[in-house]
Predict the 3D structure of the following.
Amino acid sequence: MAALVQIENLRKEFGNVRALDGVTFTVEAGEWIAIMGPSGSGKTTLINILGGLDSPTSGKAVVDGTDVARLDEAGLTRFRAEKIGFVFQQFHLVSYLTALENVMLAQYFHSTTDEGEARAALERVGLADRIDHLPSELSGGEQQRVAVARALINQPKLILADEPTGNLDEANEEIVLRLFRELHAEGHTILMVTHAHSIGQLADRRIDLAHGRLAQVKLRV
Amino acid sequence: MFGRLLWKMLRSNRGRLAVALVAVASGATVISALLNLQFDIERKLTQEFRAFGANVVISRAGSAEGADASQSTPEVRGSPALMDQAAVLGQVEKMQTPDVVAAAPYLYVVARVGDVPIVAVGTWLDQARKLQPTWKLTGGWDPSRADEGRCLVGRNVARQFQLAPGSEIELKYLANSAHLRVADVVDAGGAEDNQIFVNLPVVQKLAALDGRIELVQLSVSGTGPGIGNYVSRLASSLPGYDVRPVRQVAEAEGNLLDRTRLLILSMVVLILVLTALCVLATMAALAMERRKNVGLMKALGGSISRIMELFLAEVSVLGAVGGLIGCIAGVALAEWMGRRVFGTSITPRWDVFPLTIAMMVGVALAGALPLRLLGKIRPAVILRGE
């Protein structure tokens, strides 16, 4: 079976700065990969390229058979809508939309909205009683769970999470990680950037980056 | 979902949008008022110009008489200069339209009061009064065409002969004379102040010119082309007669209308530009505020066209609502301006509504140009917080 994600000799330069320098690895469908490394090692750049938010300078980044490097702006937009679910460290919810509407926003840009499905997604992340609340009325953990529901609503092939627990307290971190464990158990493919070793140990594999290069790949013991 | 998102966007930015709404509504108010005036102004101005007197004159072809007949002191013309009253007035009667405000025949003689020569003007006093709405009749008499025993005397004539309403005067011409009672004193501020006005048959009998007239003056309302069209039709129905507009009045009317139109058009354009600039400033600030949300929407798979649809719908609503408010306020402003400037009410033109609203939507969309910058946003950069 072909890998869901294939990265070959991926390079990304910002002027004279080489953020990624010949990274190569693959990810099988259903795997949970933790991408770790110090600040500036290229973790977020890698996630952005895989999510179609940025383009590589050279190399291949194939997700579900689509080489992201070859897509134009419109192609990248469709790619993001159909294949990727993002969870950001800063949650990035639209402040004037309720939890339900934030989830439906992803549906709106994907195809058509289905309020029932959006409600079900929020119920699934434990926010049945917070559906009509604005982000400002939710705790950090609740906001991140809304973001997870939004990432899942279009059944993406790949979930990209950039430090999803970085802004959460311990209790909320645990709630969000439990969600990711459930998603993994259901067969979702997850690439998660994290600084926390404890979180890295939850993943099937840990990919360490240093200075834009692949430092090591570790399987979960 | 589109409507839901649009409503939430409008609500969330109501502070900033209210500023733009006030600008659009203010611009629309003035534009709506000006357009209402513009559409009504020709009617108003032509009404105003009718106050300057007759604007069409019929005379015998080749006669030197014409536009400024009342300013002269002619002797009785020989028959070549005179016209057949029945033929000319019959044709004028046939060509009567609602635009013909007044029409009156004129026959002038230099009669005598005692030994003093005075210009006696035979006309239809009721119509002559309408042709000269600026005349002041000190006694407030309502002139009648049928009254052959009374006359109007000019202010200077009244002073010279110490006449007042009710005084009697004998008008002589050659061997004929007419005994008249002064009905009122005319204060015209011109040559009429030195004349005596009587109904046409009085002068015709004095001068033994029954059925003869020297000229006909008409006051025709309408636009320049409309008056020109009427003059052409009347001229073709009166061959052998000279039918022409009073050039000075017609030209002044045309020039003033053109200048007024240009002034209003210039002001409308200026207001549109200023409104667009105000909307532009607001939208530039909004565009900066929305960079993060636009970056997020792009990350979620929103194409720039779908995202811009939302923002353009928002400014269109802004333009439409501001335009509608302005239209309503503009009618009130036009009414006020009409009363202040023209002394009459302005009839609201309902076709100004869609025109103003369309202009305001256009201006709002033009003012939304800074939102184009949102298309260049790179979500990766924005979401990193740079």
